[in-house]
Amino acid sequence: MLRRYNVSKGYQVILLLIFFVNILCLIIPDRTVYKSKNSNQYFWSEKPLDLSHFKIRRNVQSDTAATVNPMVIGAISRVYNYPPAVLFASDNKELSWFDISRFTNSEEDKELLEQLLEHEKRHLDIMEIYIRSAQDSLNQMVFYSYEQKYDAVTHYFELSERIQRDFDSETNNGTIEEKIKKWNKSIDSLLIKDGGS
Prior knowledge:
By secondary structure, the chain is mostly helical. It has one domain (40-193). It is 53% helix and 11% strand. The protein has five helices and five strands. It has a three-stranded mixed sheet, with helices on one face. It has a two-stranded antiparallel ribbon with strand order 3-4. α3 runs antiparallel to α4 (146-171). The protein is elongated. The termini are far apart. The relative contact order is 0.12.
């Protein structure tokens, strides 16, 4: 004989809340949740950089006029393999700076400023390409420990760092037009091939 259990209103509300939270977890991707929880971070986007992205400095005693600091942010699952990680290309904006005193309001300097901003954005694009590759590898492989996942992400980060140095070296920090075009074509094709964020 079946007995009917009387569940109080309080428990019904709690059970419904748990049910809806589970549904939301299935519907809303982990990436969206991570971004909303960390809205103070810079996340890679297709939008060009502007001066507001940088800390403005004046008269820096360096050959460098600007710098970004591409990095990996996100979370690596310690327990389950799905999702094994949620990774993003980012920039450490606290360390990204721009020496504005090198530029005037002349048309030539405005053009140089745009080229420099594009060059710095390309560093973030390169990081995005390698983060996508890292995320794909983590999604396709089975890892038996947190350390294995971390090592895979580290591998892609180190690859990105090496490519960043090659990018600066070959383009002479964004000053050799022919090389810039070659790199831009390659970066754009890889960003399109690997899909959007």
